[in-house]
Amino acid sequence: MNALDATAPARTGTSEVREDLPWIEDGGKVAPKDARVLSRLFLDRLRELEEGTRDYQYARNTLIEMNLSLVAFAARRFRNRGSGDMEDIIQVGTIGLIKAIDRFDLSREVEFTSYAIPYIVGEIKRFFRDTTWAVHVPRRLQELRVDLARSKESLSTELDRMPTVKELAAHLELTEDEVVEGLVAANGYVAGSIDTPGDDETDGAPKYADTLGDVDPALDLFEDLHSLGPLLLQLEERERTIIEMRFGQELTQAEIGRELNLSQMHISRLLNRTLAKLRTGLLPA
Fold it and tell me: Measuring CA to CA, how many Å separate 147 from each of 141, 151, 166, 189?
């Protein structure tokens, strides 16, 4: 459901609309010049209508429809910013427009467009600030990233080179530690793909993914053997011998029986009892 749909039920007909308000079937088709004039009329009447009535909803919804072009105008400047989808930006901007309509005061003698644009832009900026960071970063550091970006641009033009941390700190009247913290936090604004080449300037450079280690399948075996060591020392000598012959020398139970002059069935019982003892020792208490 979009922002406009959520504001009120649909209009039903001209007979239910006040006579001093013109019936507008589709506010989105009103020319911008006419929308400015009509908006003043509708805003004036909106203050007189009882909130929640059909007349109020008609006036409010028509105002939103007539001024959606302001949202589209404000949203265009954000179309290439971050990963925000244009439809989402329009929706968020419409929320700003609705806030402007609800709070506008004709007695201020200011054009509604001039009043609404800051609300729309502010809502969109808040959307990007709160949703486009790749990792959670405190609001203080999010705002510091913006200040650092502006200072970098200003000082780079002035110095004809990238400013140092000390120069940024002096320009922003911050400590060097605070600047470093802001620069590190800025890395969380956009997450890079591990398929990105490690060196953008070299064709065929290995990707970051190529430098990442993989799980060593022998690691689990090492951990198991490390845990088994103390348990093997606790076994009787004959038990250790059978385990070594079965799993170290990989002899069959029959071969072990011949070596120890025992029956295969006896070797099987001893082996099962020893393995159960080791298994019990490996399980957490």
Answer: 10, 6, 15, 14
